[in-house]
Amino acid sequence: MTKDPISRRRFLKTSAIGGTVAAGATLAAPAVLAQTPLVIKMQTSWPASDIWMDFARQYTTRVEEMSGGRLKVDLLPAGAVVGAFQVMDAVHDGVIDAAHTVPVYWYGKSKAASFFGTGPVFGGNANTMLGWFYEGGGADLYRELTQDILNLNVYGFMGFPMPAQPFGWFKGEVNTAADLQGFKYRTVGLAADLLQGMGMSVAQLPGGEIVPAMERGVIDAFEFNNPSSDLRFGSPDVAKNYYLSSYHQASESFEFLFNKDFFDDLDPDLQAILKYGVEAASTANTALAMENYSNDLNRIQTEHGVTVHRTSREILEAQLQAWDKLVAELEQDQFSKRVMDSQRAWVDKVAYYELMNAPDLALAYEHYFPGKLKL
């Protein structure tokens, strides 16, 4: 729809005043056209049943309401037009107008994509890194990667700083780095390189394919993102040990992609609604995640008989050591080094304040809810 050389916006403007239409019809046309919403075809990278579709709907609802009905979003799940990992290409080509995804899903184009959510952990969390994107130079580096280096015809905005992703689902207990050797494990992006460096064999799969792959023996351990998605996928049916806390993907956010030609053709106020609607949805997503992730973690334990663990300090330290080796390799690429240098400088400054200023919340939680934490 957006590959047509005559844009929809330009068509609406010219058709209202051009041609040999009678004067009365010409005058009436704008009033009629004003009642017709511009439909945005937006596909996600998520199965229809995943909570992340709920997060995407929070965005589309806000866009439609803020636009006063001038915009309507046709929100589609993964596979409706293209596969979960193909949405970047589809937006670039104009096959769809927009996508709700994560940068790591187009990691195959450039490993640097993974820095915008699933890169090395220097000491900041997802809030820290979302701040880097908007105030620390990340957005400019993202634009350089997508538009200048990869020549992608897209704009991208980030929203919803995700809680650090669990290490994931295992059939038995894993307490040491040695316990991980030989596992066939699902993850994506630089986390795949990281965990391969720790002795695991990694398959990069979309969310909807994870549990079937586990059932077929293609993998024997996995992570996706959060308790709600994991529960909806049926994870408790294929593994009974769930490990929280990990450095493999600790600072991810959603990516809101738009075809550049489509976006540029919009009126400035509609562009602003699409852009700043990401910030509105980010707050709403955070609140919804808090409610659902917490409730579903409880259900995973009480209704499905899953043992929830906190990943051991030994494994976490082994992850940091593996990141050190991977970072040294990645720094051979000039652009990747610039991104990591920028992130390190931001984290050095910002996380110092965050960590020095933060009270020990675990101490307070243990004071009021003694014996629940597994530290």
Describe this structure in words.
This protein has 375 residues and is of the alpha/beta class. A six-stranded mixed sheet has the order 7-6-8-5-9-11, with helices on one face. It has helices spanning 8-17, 23-33, 51-66, 87-93, 126-135, 138-149, 190-196, 210-216, 227-233, 260-264, 268-302, 313-330, 334-357, 361-368; strands at residues 38-44, 71-76, 98-101, 154-161, 168-170, 184-186, 201-203, 221-222, 241-244, 253-259, 307-310. Helices cover 47% and strands 14% of the residues. The protein has a domain at 8-110 and 148-161 and 253-291: 3-Layer(aba) Sandwich (D-Maltodextrin-Binding Protein, domain 2), CATH 3.40.190. Residues 1-29 have low confidence and may be disordered. Helix 1 packs antiparallel against helix 2, helix 3 runs antiparallel to helix 11 and helix 5 crosses helix 6.
Q: How large is the count of helical segments?
A: 14
Strand order in the sheet with the most strands: 7-6-8-5-9-11
Level-1 CATH class name of the domain at 8-110 and 148-161 and 253-291: Alpha Beta
The CATH topology of the domain at 8-110 and 148-161 and 253-291: D-Maltodextrin-Binding Protein, domain 2
Shape: globular
Which class of secondary structure composition applies to the elements? alpha/beta
Helix content: 40-55%
Strand coverage percent: 5-15%
Q: What is the H/E order?
A: HHEHEHEHHEEEHEHEHEEHHEHHH
Radius of gyration: 23 Å
Quickly give the CATH architecture of the domain at 8-110 and 148-161 and 253-291: 3-Layer(aba) Sandwich
